[in-house]
Amino acid sequence: MDDYQIFRGSAQLDQVKSRRDAGRLTDEDGTFLKLLALAGLDLDAEVRKAQQPDRERRMMDLNDAAQTLTEKMAPRWTQKRCAIQFQADGQHFVTFVRDQETGVMVPLEDRSRGFQWFFSFDMNFMYETGECFRNAVLLLDEPGLHLHAAAQRDLLARFREYAQRNQLVYTTNLPFMLDYARPETIYIAEECGQDGTRFHRDWARGDHAARLTLQAALGLSLSQELFTDEYTLIVEDVADYWLLAAFSTLLRAAGREALDERLVITPAGGISTMALIGPLLASEHRRVAMLRNGEEGEAAAHPWMVDERFVLTVGQALGADAPCSLEDVFPPAYYAEQVQAAYGLNGEWTQAGPAISLAPVTVAAAQRLEEIGASPYDRRRVARQILQHIACTPLHGLPLDILDSAARLVTAINTIVRGWDTG
Predict the structure, then answer these.
(1) 33-47, 126-140, 244-258, 401-415: segment of lowest average pLDDT
(2) For 353-375, what is each residue's pLDDT tens digit?
(3) Tens of pLDDT along 317-334?
(4) In the chain, where the domains are located
(5) How many whole angstroms separate alpha carbon 7 and alpha carbon 99?
(6) What is d(CA 368, CA 375) in angstroms, rounded to the nearest whole number?
(7) What separation, in Å, do the N-terminal and C-terminal C-alpha atoms of the chain show?
(8) To the nearest 5 percent, what fractions of the chain are helix, strand and coil?
(9) C-alpha dihedral over 327, 332, 334, 338, to 10 degrees?
């Protein structure tokens, strides 16, 4: 499939007949004749009808033919419900594509490049296999380049059907064109100098470009699985996810209010990503809230992310005057102990000065580590240490302040969920 095989829907019938009879058909003539054949129309008959006065009968025949082609095409293109419509004035024949929702008709040649490619590819394969879709070998180079992501998924679905009775091989660098439901079908094509091109399934040994495509496809697949729940709380980082889950577990063990079990915590990987994920989920009619570290003003800097009523800062939840992060649920002395344990520090920490005491404790910890020349502060590293400590420490062995602060945070989050329940 290439541009020269894009189907042509408009033609002068008598001129096409003349070129056919003279053996001088153009590529455009060839695709036009395929279109007629798939619709059950005959070129010679249409040329004769163009010379006859019964226009009403001709219109009815064209409508029947258009309906035939529409029924063949409709199950394969799910982006917008479309219908084929043929119109003819004398020898001038035009194929229109009508949007079923708006009723707008556009000549086939004026539809989007992606639609033309998809339509032409599917119709051409249907024609070449006599509409039986079997016993063919398909070799395709970069199919779907002109299709947007959702249409590429449509094409991938068509490929699965084609592959049931045919041999199908295609190359791609498009993440949406990789079928992760069938990983055994994905091969990496890698140039190996004088040895030529090697095809293999050792993804870890693929070159950087190949791995990048695979990583992008895997990320898209995972993200779609993450965002399938009705109630979602988006947090900035995976460390926030770990800590929130730990707080909820501690509160439940203490017989206090834990996070609503319907709420799915989703780490976004930063405020900029939160700004993208929020509107996407909200547009799917899902309930979305965001829990932000940092200052209230930082959350308000992106009021378009989601309804501002559902953007909560940790400082707001804890009733603190200063900016806070989830780590400020822990008493400063306890957090300092966990930082020391995470970094294997002993006397260096206390020799540097007084213990950290001000919120946010993460900032104070980062400064202290820098002062003593330790490795840079990594909140995930400390969060992992805290989770390990909590897991092996009985509830009564933890500072009571942790439960009280965690309870305020969880109550603020659950209040949003209860608001969703009441409308």
Answers:
(1) 126-140
(2) 445 555 588 988 998 898 888 99
(3) 898 877 889 999 999 889
(4) 3-112, 137-222, 227-423
(5) 19
(6) 11
(7) 52
(8) 55, 15, 30
(9) 60
